Here is the input.
Amino acid sequence: MLILAFDTATEVATVALVRDGDVLGERVSRAVRVLRDVEELLEEAGLTADDLDAIAVGTGPGSYTGLRMGLVTARTLNVSLAVPVAGVSTLDALAAGAPGAVPVLDGKRQEVFTLVDGEPACLAAVDLEVERSRTYVGDGAVRFRAQIAERGGLVPPDDAPEHVPWARHHALLARDFGPGDGAEPIYLRVPDAERALTR
Here is the structure.
């Protein structure tokens, strides 16, 4: 099965082509480049969009705008190419790239997105539970490195690959492929624009 996987929920967008568990190609860029990255990966692999069997898309949590871009792209490709879609949590993909580590995404506003008892959660950064000698990965771990380190946690160097939610992991974790609108976003909180309207 040839899977196109991508995630645009964080400031770093990842795209991968994975066939039966083998990574044919992978890119890291910005969300606005996703379709161009897809075209280039297919061309480099000697394939076309018609060769795709399925799509795996990151469902967040993360940037509202970035997340919407990824989901709209997945739903558009679902309709235009008639290939099924599966959503994969960005936190789960990040954790898969660093087994045993705690995934921590930057939620802005001094907050982080992480897993609590295996479920996505939004916490104030100061409320992140840190275990001594445990590794923490993701852009949130990088941003709050000092707080994590002072409580005994470990954070790899800023440029370590463990901080990236690689699309290859989305492809490997994807299950239950179906209609594009079945990939539901994980928001965890009200978008800033909506919050401003209610003030």
Remarks:
- The chain has a mean pLDDT of 94.
- The beta strands are 2-7, 13-19, 22-29, 54-58, 85-88, 102-106, 111-116, 119-124, 136-137.
- Helices lie at 34-44, 64-81, 90-96, 139-143, 145-150, 167-173, 192-197.
